[in-house]
Amino acid sequence: MKFLQKTFMVVLVLLIAAGTVFAGGGSQAQSGSTGKGLIGVVMPTRSEERWI
User: Fewer CB in a 10 Å sphere around the end CB: N or C, the chain?
Assistant: First the structure.
């Protein structure tokens, strides 16, 4: 019983650590960025219903 609890805790800690590592979202992949986040704006096309 102790072995199962210890194994569960180790797996849980590893999952939390992996989640923390991958939570960065690839901020180093954008080497040319100025440090600000990117914001995308999508304008409607004339064929869409909501065109004014």
Answer: C
Distance (Å, rounded) from C-alpha 24 to C-alpha 31? Answer: 14
* Whole-angstrom Cα Rg for the chain: 22
pLDDT in tens, 23-52: 766 555 555 555 566 677 777 777 777 655
Token couple for 33: 């960025």
Helix runs in 1-52, H state only: 2-22
The residue written with tokens 């805790």 in the block is 9
The per-residue pLDDT for 51 is 59
